[in-house]
Design brief:
Four copies of one chain form a homotetramer. Chain A is of the alpha/beta class. Chain A has 14 helices and 17 strands. In chain A, a hairpin with a 2-residue loop joins strand 1 and strand 2. In chain A, helix 4 runs antiparallel to helix 11, helix 5 packs parallel to helix 11 and helix 13 crosses helix 14. The two termini of chain A are 20 Å apart. Chains A and B meet through helix 2, strand 1, helix 3, helix 4 and helix 5 of A and helix 2, strand 1, helix 3, helix 4 and helix 5 of B. Chains A, B, C, D: Its EC number is 2.6.1.76. Chains A, B, C, D: It comes from Streptomyces polyrhachis. Chains A, B, C, D: Belongs to the class-III pyridoxal-phosphate-dependent aminotransferase family. Chains A, B, C, D: This is Diaminobutyrate--2-oxoglutarate transaminase. Chains A, B, C, D: Keywords: Aminotransferase, Pyridoxal phosphate, Transferase.
């Protein structure tokens, strides 16, 4: 397939230089169904990117689409801030019945605005209000968002520099295996907490991703997560799991922390919660933490009712039994087998793979190689992006609803791209 | 009309205490068309709230709805981050042809994420990056959003306290007429800027709303806005107009600053830009300010393509000629006449009205009266909210597409509510 | 008199470029007595500078010197941190009997370290601890010190930039007459405090100098000071008077705020408190504010006992009756008469004078003129420095013990310097 | 010896509750000579405290005293800000000839104000100005001072809380052996620096004490200090050694870092630099770092000329040859032998000793034991204080001029106090 980049377009002349994906994937996309994207020149692409994790059920999932069209056609209320609506009630009831109750999770549900960073900002505000302390601990290579509160607990130096002010009140701690097993888990963190002379401002909370997506698909072991929960409990800090990318089934279970058997104090969800790629986010917290005053945090688009409708449909369709979780784990094994074989090839020398559920990464010693693989894959009709602090990791994030055949096809294309860039 | 509040519902038991509108309007809304809302018990409400300014073209506007349904039905790509798409291209071209070119505005367009606070955060980041300075000047009673960057330039003490950290790098200056005409415009601000001993950190930028919506419908005079632009030019500060609530025609012209004849360096838009209540936001800036690196600011939902589709339809439908602006000004006169009469009544003693275009407020000496008026209006089938630092202002924000008859009806109901709460 | 600047000396080669006075006064000083300085080349200088206000009783005052020598000779303890010593007890008793009791001032006394900025840092810490709030209001052209806490409430942009971090938690308000009488006192400040939407973080305290020395000899009226005390009382803010330069009799009474009849919550003293130019500082506060934990603020040199000895001798010698105050006011009148005449001369066109007690300034329209006057005065044997944000004010700060003849001589030299630089 | 605490004295009624040493040592001290203190009731005390390290040459050292009295008697200028004086010139020349040149140290000399925290504040300002970055790395259990800049890099939580604002821009790293040898030196620190995704703001500088005095006599190994200097060089950070307590011969050589063979970029000195307990401090830096503008940092008491006189005398008397260093190391061996024996006693079970030169500590498992030892020692006529985050370390800081007999006496008293508190 040959791609002619579009002539100097309105994207180049009018849109800000801040655009990024459009540079790596020089096409003008038009339609999409399931795991396929179509550009206006008639090319189609297999999607191993899934809207950066916002399309766990594929593009324009037909069941969700039907619910959405019905709602819009009958003039269901679209925009409602935090007014009571039938669509919101249906979502809340379904979320309670399908997600919370079967997992014995006691959470209250907050609509903090429709994006992940809204959810993170609200979680940090709440934690600080409850504990009366400013400091938050985050982890190396964390990614939590672009507004100033979230950015202060994000690791990436390039993104942080964009703030234009010194980012304070956050302290990084080593993520699982950050120091290559040379240091016992939490040795440093807990020593700082125990020592009143350490200079660490006592944190209100710890915010963590169970698998760091933007950070390079770094997978925390379940025992590490349990250890972290214990550190938090011992030292009067709230545990916030940012499940924006890894929740909604990405790692298998609905919440990525289920396997570890922990119950975080606060959980953020966004990306795939609406199921259809519509902006929506949730902040969940234990009921005793619901100390908000009415209106203390708000936002214009926190009542995006079409998203509530597709979210409800997604939960009803995929999460009333354990089928989705089992399927994701099976698909994950399929990916793992392929990556085992691929990393054993001479063409992939030095590459390492890691992942959980349907979030996988291949780390290359040289970041330029990761970029080359993605570029070649795109030419071959496969959408893949990089992640990691130096963009050295090729990230595989297919829709959970991908068929085994599509998955196989994509993994074959990936292998070819690796070989052809060796 | 009698309203029975719903029995202890999932809103009370599951949704966080942070919810606010649902407390003042104890109904479960179901459908909406134009300026009418319908609850599940069959009551209907006239809407003088317009989704806090996000529904300038009314609920589920049929022209926009048709475009949206068509797009969704043919599986137009929904979620695309900042990839190039046909829907985005169409929007950019239309925005250029219908909005920017006719007004000789040279702006580049950034998609900063789908909410107003995303746009404000990106504007502040950009200004700080360009000027290499941290400090921002905002105005008394400003409202710019709930994430930490935006909240630091927001006036409301209750919202600010929610941050849980000291909000710094922002300094408030008096908004137009804040000191009741006792002080020449910008005397204090400019004296601070001129005096190297003043203690004011030299600001990177000034952020202003031309009419403060949440602040209580405080209207800046055009000469004050021009004066402000001159102060910014003289002292090497960028001028950011936050047109999130007052843009998209709310005050008459597409941008609220057009009447003043100024060209801000940076403009934020959100709320009614999609036209359908779908989350979408824009940050506009002069081309020489486009110093972003690719990906320096990003966000999952910055490519909400259904919103681009309705936004394009809204521009095509309402902004290709000057009709909408004229109609809004006419409707505004209709409101003003009614408020003149109302404030002259004994029942409204001490009340003052102010506004521009279709953004109006009635300030009451006692905030409890404003609350009572809104409560009574709701019982009478009219949706109205309060604003201002003490919630002492009844805010009128009808859809721009409201008919003269609907407007009359609402103004009559308002007058009745005022009388019945005297 | 001709002065040969010293050959490239150890000051040029070894001392940091940060040195400043040695540049304007290129001599190597050796001895000093009363209001006279002597350099190593045998020149003598009349002193209208008094160690920047640290030598109110002149250089090497013989009474204080006797007490100091006696103490040192008998091996009185020199360095004692905050241990109990006879010298500290004598000072405390004398300070209570001579200063506090006759003025009905109930203050507790803290030794915060031996410099003014130590005193200011401790005052701000205490105020923040008591009120649980971070924000402090200071005034335009304030000067409170060079460590980060004090610098954040100092106005001078050049000094502030030296911090290397954004200085936050402080907000400047207009000092008395800052806006040239165009604005009622405290209109802006109090409006911000009353308005919960103003965006001003509620301050813990206000810090003020009654006469701004470094700021250019700006004299607050007594009614303004009383008004400020009332604003503080009304809005639950502590009033801190920084009397480091203007206390110890500089304006006439021992404390500069006595004339206004106010009782600040916290007072800082330093500079002339030891009376001999030895490092010493005090923080005074109302007893109910003494909420310090033992050791919560400390410092190695807070027990500089030789300074306690000279401080005690100074109080005993000069402050047991009202003689010093009367004499200072008389000397002040002598200065004022001379300045009235001088500013009326053609040579001083555009110059304005202002002052109180023995703190006076002549402001010139062009800062270069102020520098020229000081330079010429130095050549003529008179030590004078500039102050003000642009160094546009020639500052007169003679010792309180200066004789009428010396004062006359200095004023004549000043007049000559003004004329010769016209 | 029995001590009757003084009746309710002016210390209790007038001095602030912040006083601390006077609580542990309830005497009123009067005179002092060498290593002996005398209270007004005729008791004498052997001094193992040396003014918290400010009296390395003992109390009222007769050689320094003679120089000081001569200077004062002949009316040598006392207070001179940063004017050139003969006393300052003599000091600078002596410091160059006796301290800098023989050690091949190229430093410029700054007089930042007379206290340690002035020196630290100036060092941090300079580092931030040079690097244009805000962040500073300090170490666990560091102590650098009480003003806000210094406090932000100090570890003690109790002191930090006194700030009343969140202390930011500082990040603690593990001091040598903090993690009990379980982690390679600088593994964590350097990993953070190498990883652009770590979330550590790139520091302008690292500030370190070679032996942490207040932190509990924690001794950094010379190889650790060299490693630290290399980390700084590799990552473009300035190395600041805070030698306020450990400089001036406390550990043997004049600078405590000499043994490690490193040349810090910036060095702070205070405490014993004047030699007589008079307030004085220095900031030293490599000449290429002398980017200060004249007057960018200043302070009233930075020209405390009597201190320059005693400082010069101290250098001339003790540092023109290597005798003082050798003697200190010999005395240190004497202390170490005694502590080896003491810690082997049953009465000292669990106690550990550590130290270098004449700075030693005995750490007890239970902080109450350390307090009891000091209390008992005081009753027995020996002045000793505790340090460490929990005050669990008895600190031995005798004057460098102590005789072997006095040292023996003190060590015997210490041993008795340990035994009697078992």
């Amino acid at each position: 397939m040959t791609l002619t980049p579009p002539a100097l377009s309105v994207f180049e002349t009018l849109e800000s230089e801040v655009r990024s994906y459009s540079r790596g994937w020089p096409a003008v996309f038009d339609q999409a169904r399931g795991s396929r994207l179509y550009d206006e020149d008639g090319h189609d692409y297999l999607d191993f990117f899934a809207g950066a994790g916002a399309l766990n059920y594929g593009h324009n999932n037909p069941v969700l689409k039907r619910a959405l069209l019905d709602y819009l056609e009958r003039d269901g209320i679209t925009h409602a801030l935090d007014m009571g609506t039938r669509a919101k009630r249906a979502f809340l009831e379904t979320f309670r019945n399908v997600v919370l109750r079967p997992r014995d999770l006691p959470y209250k549900v907050m609509f903090p605005g429709p994006t992940g960073t809204n959810a993170v900002e609200s979680a940090l505000k709440l934690a600080r209000k409850i504990k009366g302390r400013e400091s938050i601990v985050s982890f190396t290579n964390a990614f939590h968002g672009m507004s100033l509160g979230s950015l202060a607990v994000t690791g990436n130096a390039f993104k942080r520099a964009g703030a234009g002010i010194p980012l304070v009140h956050g302290t990084p701690m080593p993520f699982d295996d950050y120091l290559d097993g040379q240091v016992p888990d939490f040795l440093w963190f807990e020593r700082l907490l125990q020592d009143s002379g350490s200079g660490l401002n006592h944190p209100a909370a710890v915010i963590v991703e169970t698998v760091q997506g933007e950070g390079g698909i770094n997978v925390a072991r379940t025992e590490w997560l349990r250890g972290l929960a214990e550190v938090c409990a011992r030292h009067d800090m709230l545990l916030i799991v940012d499940d924006i990318q890894m929740g909604c089934g990405r790692t298998g279970p609905f919440f990525s922390f289920e396997e570890a058997g922990i119950v975080p104090d606060i959980v953020t969800l966004s990306k795939s919660i609406s199921g259809y790629g519509l902006p929506m986010a949730l902040t969940l917290f234990k009921p005793e933490l619901d100390v908000w005053e009415p209106g203390e945090h708000n936002g214009t688009f926190r009542g995006n009712n079409p998203a509530f409708v597709t979210a409800t449909a997604a939960l009803d369709t995929y999460w009333t039994d354990g089928g989705m979780e089992k399927q994701t784990l099976r698909r994950g094994e399929q990916v793992e087998s392929a990556l085992v074989a691929l990393c054993a090839e001479a063409a992939a020398e030095g590459a390492v793979y890691r992942g959980r559920g349907l979030a996988w990464g291949i780390g290359f010693p040289d970041p330029r190689r990761a970029a080359a693989v993605c570029r070649r894959a795109f030419d071959l009709g496969l959408i893949l992006e990089t992640s990691g602090p130096r963009s050295e990791v090729v990230k595989l994030l297919p829709a959970l609803t991908i068929t085994p055949e599509e998955l196989e096809e994509g993994l074959r294309t990936l292998a070819r791209a690796v070989r052809e860039t060796a």
